[in-house]
Design brief:
With about 170 residues, the chain is an alpha+beta fold. About 55% of the residues lie in helices and about 15% in strands. β5 and β6 form a beta hairpin.
């Protein structure tokens, strides 16, 4: 369940909020000598001001590949390559785009909740299996299922909290 919340948080880092953030680009996969490599492994990412991302490749020959990967990603920012660094100017989001991003965040949240519920289902199956094998009493089985339900509720609340924060960030002008 903790892993599902972690995955959600990492996914949300890549959704832009109108200000520059390394999380927007660091997980973009770049074709680097034939293998897809996360950008953060082949370049230094800097945020000199709130509307600008500067990417300096460790290997300057990889700049065209980095530029191409950014263009094909879904972040919606055109890179400017000067031969030494790539600059990404992060434009402010329109109201319509903000609403689209919030909808995307809610979709990711629902996927995380489904993952949490799948863990609950697996745990309940394990408890039922142990009850069938007579290694656990019926009362212990019921208590275990109640505990699993409490944990599920806790993690669903964590998902809601993470999504609420991200949605507020996106809608803030």
């Amino acid at each position: 369940m903790e892993k599902a919340v972690e995955v959600l948080a990492n996914s949300l880092r890549g959704i832009r909020t109108g200000t520059a953030s390394a999380g927007l680009v660091e997980s973009i996969r770049v074709d680097y000598y034939g293998s897809p490599t996360p950008l953060r492994q082949i370049a230094q990412i800097a945020i000199p001001d709130p509307q600008l991302i500067v990417i300096k490749a460790y290997d300057p020959t990889s700049l065209p590949n980095i530029e191409k990967a950014i263009q094909t990603s879904d972040i919606g920012i055109n890179p400017q390559n000067d031969g030494k660094v790539i600059r990404l100017s992060v434009p402010p989001l329109s109201e319509e785009r903000r609403k689209q991003l919030v909808a995307r965040v809610k979709t990711l949240a629902e996927e995380a909740k489904v993952a949490v519920r799948n863990v609950r289902r697996d745990a309940n199956r394990q408890v039922d299996k142990e009850e069938d094998e007579a290694s656990v009493s019926e009362d212990d089985c019921d208590r275990a299922k109640e505990e699993v339900q409490k944990l599920t509720k806790q993690y669903e609340d964590k998902v809601d909290e993470v999504v609420s924060k991200k949605s507020d960030d996106i809608m803030r002008v």
